[in-house]
Specification:
166 residues, Cell Cycle, Spindle Assembly Checkpoint Protein, Chain A, 31% helix
Amino acid sequence: MSATFTGTYSRTHTAKYVSDKMRNVLKYLISYYGLNPTALLDSWTDWVDSGAREMLELGHLEKIVIEFYKPGSDQALARWDFPIRYDGNGADEMWVDREFLEGSFAKTTSPPAGCIYRILLQPLPGAPLPSFMSYSSYKSLNGMVGREAGTIVSTPDIMASMKYYR
């Protein structure tokens, strides 16, 4: 007697996985910078997770962005983009490259004392936002230059990479 096993991942499953792992990546980044991740966790529970999952399931999320800035300022003092691709790794495996993530954090400069942060979800051009979300503008990069860092989250059909500004 022989048995055959197959692994099947639905977009719902991978969207949940990517959303959960991105929360952990952002929490780790915020903590690495010496800031309190409570606002992230509150936002994730309030709206980010449901918005990210909905857009990921539909293939509408272009990127997740975290901006660090001084309260009241229109300029980002640090920013990380996490672009999303929907081509996946084609294998029945899901992973997060924590070592690569830590090495990338070490290449950046921490935002100055007194900074706060915010999370933004950028839809693909022409894609609708979930009904409970609205559009917002990014803070000015004030001459910072983006650096591609590589893939950090991989699933059969969704991938997330990193880009940091300095």
